[in-house]
Design a protein that fits this description.
383 residues, nine-stranded mixed sheet, Rossmann fold, binds S-adenosylmethionine, 3 domains, flat, alpha/beta, Thump-like
């Protein structure tokens, strides 16, 4: 790592930020003891950082291999998670590239970071020094750290790694390193609050049944793309009924929250299409709060199997998209007219719809093919 900090090498990296990396890799490194692969990795890191971690746009920052860049949280989600966190002692047991830790620990007096990968923790220590941030850096397996530890922490953070990178679909907490089911009791003995980041693919009911003292699940989306589930475990919280909080960063959507158990007893009102159509954002869809959102916003649901809602009056602070609509006869559409086509609970796919009615994708207007409990609907957005 030290060699990469050589001024000439840093200048070379800066001068080649827009270079074609494949051709660069074929060249011989102009520097003794530093391979072209290492140099290209630094260029890749800087490019990833431009969007994912802009705070790392500083001289002499060192970047790890791609896997660690991919596993790291983005600055925007890390900064969101840091809100309201404050205290004396902060511990991150799965430091990785240290992006989460950097933001989450900002308002703590003493910070302990644990990472099993020796190269990675060295890089984190170096980068934190550049930012003038102090911490105790532990290159240890977290089980060893926990067995030696005598401190108490206000907040313990974990962002477990997947054991198998190919597990794309459903996966279980046992598939993660560490397995939080094995250590959750131990963590709550030494920490007041435990915060755990998980993939959005994990099922929420499964988490509620397996994780103890679970007080909150945050579903964090960025521009309507669900990025993370964030669990909060609190020692004094009785299990079973966490607050579910749906957040869509970089949007005007309000935060939508409900208690897990309440969803089961709330009944949604159903109704036929009125003036406005409401399409919940993806964090709400992930949450399963389909009855709660109808009750909270006083909206009628169109159909038990479709999570679309309606009202006669406009309601502005909905956690999702709102369209002013009218029900139309699709046969009267003009040939080649452009629409954003949505098909939900309707027999035709968007492609089949385009073919059948000779319309095209795009433009500003929406066409929603769906059904209420009474009838098939084709809704065209107005304005
Ligand atoms: C998903 S990454 C964390 C990324 C981090 N939150 C960030 O924003 O950069 C998980 C990290 O946990 C580390 N890890 C997994 N199991 C561990 C264990 N038993 N002990 C210590 N570190 C572990 C991995 O080496 C990996 O770097």
């Amino acid at each position: 790592m030290e060699k990469l900090l050589n001024k000439e090498i840093q200048n070379y990296i800066n001068a080649n930020l827009d270079a074609d990396l494949h051709s660069l890799l074929l060249k011989k490194s102009p520097f003794d003891g530093v391979s072209m692969q290492e140099i290209v990795q630094q260029i890749k890191g800087r490019k990833v950082a431009e969007k994912k971690f802009p705070f790392l746009k500083k001289d002499n920052i060192i970047f790890p291999p791609n896997l660690n860049l991919e596993q790291a949280s983005s600055e925007v989600t890390a900064a969101y998670k840091s809100e309201f966190l404050k205290g004396k002692n902060f511990l991150d047991l799965t430091c990785g590239f240290g992006i989460d830790a950097y933001f989450l620990s900002k308002n703590f007096d003493e910070i302990d970071l644990v990472e099993q990968n020796p190269d990675l923790i060295k890089i984190v220590e170096h980068n934190w020094n550049i930012h003038g941030r102090k911490a105790n850096f532990h290159n240890l397996d977290l089980e060893d750290f926990l067995s030696q530890n005598k401190k108490h922490f206000d907040v313990i953070y974990l962002d477990p790694a997947r054991r198998d990178q190919n597990l794309k679909k459903k996966f279980l907490l046992e598939d993660l390193s560490p397995n939080i089911l094995e250590i959750q009791d131990q963590l709550l003995e030494i920490g007041d609050k435990v915060i755990i980041k998980l993939s959005p693919l994990i099922d929420i009911s499964y988490l509620v049944s397996e994780v103890k003292h679970l007080s909150k699940i945050e579903i964090i989306a960025w521009r309507n793309d669900v990025k993370e589930l964030v669990l909060t475990l609190e020692k004094n919280f009785i299990s079973g009924n966490p607050l579910i909080s749906c957040i869509n960063l970089e949007s005007q959507d309000s935060i939508f929250e409900f208690y897990f158990e309440d969803e089961k007893s709330i009944k949604a009102d159903f109704g036929d299409i009125e003036n406005y159509l409401y399409i919940p954002n993806n964090s709400v869809l992930k949450s399963g709060g389909f009855n709660s959102i109808s009750k909270l916003f006083n909206l009628k649901k169109l159909h038990p199997n479709t999570h679309l809602y309606t009202s006669s009056q406009l309601l502005n602070n909905f956690a999702g998209r709102i369209l002013k609509v009218k029900n139309i006869d699709p046969k009267k559409l003009i040939k080649n007219e452009k629409f954003n086509i949505i098909s939900k609970n309707h027999p035709l796919t968007p492609d089949e719809i385009k073919k059948k009615y000779k319309i095209k994708d795009g433009g500003q207007d929406y066409l929603v093919f769906t059904q209420s409990q009474k009838a098939k609907l084709v809704l065209r957005s107005l304005d």
